[in-house]
Amino acid sequence: MKRFLGILFFIILTIPLRAQEFSGNGNDISIILTNIKAFSKAYMDADYDTMMSLYAENAKIFPPGTSIISEIDNIRQRWILPKGVKVVYHNVIPKEITVLEDTAYDYGVYEGSSTDKDNNITEWKGKYVIVWKKINNEWRIYLDIWNRIQEQN
Predict the structure, then answer these.
(1) What does the pLDDT look like over 113-153, one tens digit per residue?
(2) Residue among 51, 27, 52, 58 nearest 137 (CA)
(3) 56-91 pLDDT, tens per residue?
(4) What gap in Å lies between CA 107 and CA 81, rounded to an integer?
(5) CB 40 within 8 A of CB 90
(6) How far apart are CA 153 and CA 143, in angstroms?
(7) Which of 7, 58, 106, 118 has minimal Cβ neighbours within 10 Å of its Cβ?
C-alpha cells in the first residue's frame, strides 16, 4: 500500500510538468491552436502562401544563427526549402498560451523530420516563442523565434 501511495503521489506531483497552461479568452486560444496546426500542415505541404497568411504584415522572424528577418517577402524566402528537401513531419506542442486583449504569447517545443534529395531522413526538435497580434479580428504571428535542441548522447 505504501508503494502504491508513493507512486500515486509522484504522478500527482509530476502532472503539472507535462500540462499545458492556457489562459485568456477560450475562443482566441482555439483560433491560435488552429493557426498552429495550419502552419505545420502548410510547412509539410510547402504551401508558402498559407504560411505567409499566418504572419502579420509587419512580422519579424528570428531564425537561429541569422539576423532578424522582416518583410513578408524576406520571411517567405527564409522558409522556402532547398530543391529536393521535403518536410514530412512537423508538430508544434505549445506549453503555454496566454491571451492579453489583442496580443498573445505562446511558447513550447516543435519536432519534425525532413528528407533530402537522396531520401535521407533527418529528425529535429527545438523550442520556440511566438508573439501573436489580433489584426482585423484574426490572430497573426507578429514575432517568431526558434532554435533547435541538440540531442545529448
Answers:
(1) 999 999 999 999 999 999 999 999 999 999 999 999 987 65
(2) 27
(3) 999 999 999 999 999 999 999 999 999 999 999 999
(4) 24
(5) yes
(6) 32
(7) 118
Q: Give the list of residues 6+ apart from residue 107 with CB closer than 8 angstroms, or none.
A: 94, 95, 96, 127, 128, 129, 130
Q: Which residues pair with 123 in a beta bridge?
A: 113
CB proximity list for 31: less than 8 A, separation 6 or greater: 138, 139
Q: Which three cell numbers stand for residue 151?
A: 540531442
Q: Which three cell numbers stand for residue 118?
A: 537522396
Please give the domain boundaries of the chain with CATH numbers for all domains: 20-148 (3.10.450.50)
Q: Give a three-class secondary structure readout of the chain.
A: CHHHHHHHHHHHHHHHHHCCEEECCHHHHHHHHHHHHHHHHHHHCCCHHHHHHCEEEEEEEECCCCCCEECHHHHHHHHCCCCCCEEEEEEEEEEEEEEECCEEEEEEEEEEEEECCCCCEEEEEEEEEEEEEEECCEEEEEEEEEEECCCCC
- Report pTM: 0.84
Provide the Cα torsion 115, 118, 120, 124; round to 10°.
Answer: -40
